[in-house]
């Protein structure tokens, strides 16, 4: 084994080591989050300290974008994404959708728009994803067909969500969930009393307010469990919005997989082992002219240790090419640092520092 690969594996063992804030970065003031100036939200990779972003083993780099690939390379990226409070990622079992996912007839995405209930804790980012549908999905009428949603930054999986229950999901769960501007130091809510009969792992059920599980027959039976992954890579794959997203997403995913596997961190759609990095395709997030768009959600703490159960950071990157994936794994996923901030960083948040890009 080469010394460079051995070094990468050691870094994988210390997965998601919290990074140190610079004294020049604005701090929390009276519980409010600050807007980080460009260059202050996430630390930049220093090759002298962190090592190079690529091992330059070019013979193994066989994945390339199409020969006539062309995107916007000139427009400024940082600070131009619209702020969001929570992110709901909906399982559809597909990698492409109608142009506006809220127009998917009979879907949970459509129900979010049509149910008449708006989140009270800020803007909800809604994404369709290729997360698999439950086996029982097709056994029910469309309005009652269950699916699964992943709620971020809480890193909670909610199953048995139907189009008919979306309003209740928002009022009973999303409205009381942590947001991107909720301090990580908030006191924990009372423990949940609802077990998950379908979860055979040893993962604990997340702590959620008791009101979500009141034993009333009028309440929909949502089932919650912690997302098992330590980090998530969400890649826009929506070809119906821009063919470049559909072309680049599978290439970027394959390259991420190639660099995560030697570290023991790759998790496919059905891999529920604790830890590791989940990779999902999601629908349009804006900025398709900057494809490929990748959102990196990171928990805090070290691999194998007790750490933050929620996302500490979201690092939103654009203009990602296959040759960038090694550096993103080594430095962004593992350390929370950005290799090419001027070219690739669109924005995000750091709840530990109390900073956002908007």
Q: If you compute it from the alpha carbons, what radius of gyration comes out, rounded to the nearest whole angstrom?
A: 20 Å
Strand content: 15-25%
Q: List how many beta strands DSSP finds.
A: 13
**Helical percentage:** 10-25%
Mean pLDDT metric: 84
What is the molecular shape? Answer: globular
The DSSP helix count reads 7
Strand order of the largest sheet: 1-13-12-11-10-7-9-8
Through-space gap between termini: 44 Å
Major beta sheet, specifics?
8 strands, mixed
Poorly predicted parts: 16-25, 187-217, 302-306
SSE run: HEHEHEEEHEEHEEEEHHEE
* Class based on secondary structure composition and strand pairing: alpha/beta
List the topology elements.
Layout: H1 3-13, E1 34-35, H2 47-50, E2 86-91, H3 108-114, E3 124-129, E4 147-152, E5 156-161, H4 166-172, E6 223-226, E7 231-236, H5 243-260, E8 266-267, E9 277-282, E10 294-299, E11 311-317, H6 325-335, H7 341-344, E12 345-350, E13 355-356
Parallel strand pairs: 1-13, 2-3, 7-9, 8-9
Antiparallel strand pairs: 2-4, 4-5, 5-6, 7-10, 10-11, 11-12, 12-13
Could you please describe the fold and organization of this structure?
- It is a single chain.
- With 358 residues, the protein is α/β, with parallel strands linked by helices.
- It has 7 helices and 13 strands.
- The strands form 2 sheets. The chain has an 8-stranded mixed sheet.
- The longest helix has 18 residues, at 243-260.
